[in-house]
Amino acid sequence: MKDFGLKKLYYSISEVSRLTGLEQYILRYWETEFEQLKPGKNRAGNRIYTNKDIKLILQIKRLLREEKYTIEGAKKILEDFISDSSMIISNEEQKIERQQIVGPRSVKKDLEDIKNVLVQLQGIL
Q: The pTM is what?
């Protein structure tokens, strides 16, 4: 499987199409069939896919193309897989999710720490 790492937070549908080897119309169709696949949209209304979305697409592709499941069968597998909470999330993906959730708070704390250091330096001068 390709490593999507920290290169980008969001990918366009054309980039995802290239990465996964799937046509754009297939990606749009799968959105209607698989409730777990819900890419966000930017201000212009274009789909934006995360690394998590891409991994889900690759998993759907594997189920449908390699393991020859029907769409209904693949839906059932994904529902069971997600409800069991056994979906494997890479360390890089966890870091991205933590940054998105904790991001503003950690930035605020970092700025407060910098401020404290600067105040201490000002006292020394």
A: 0.62
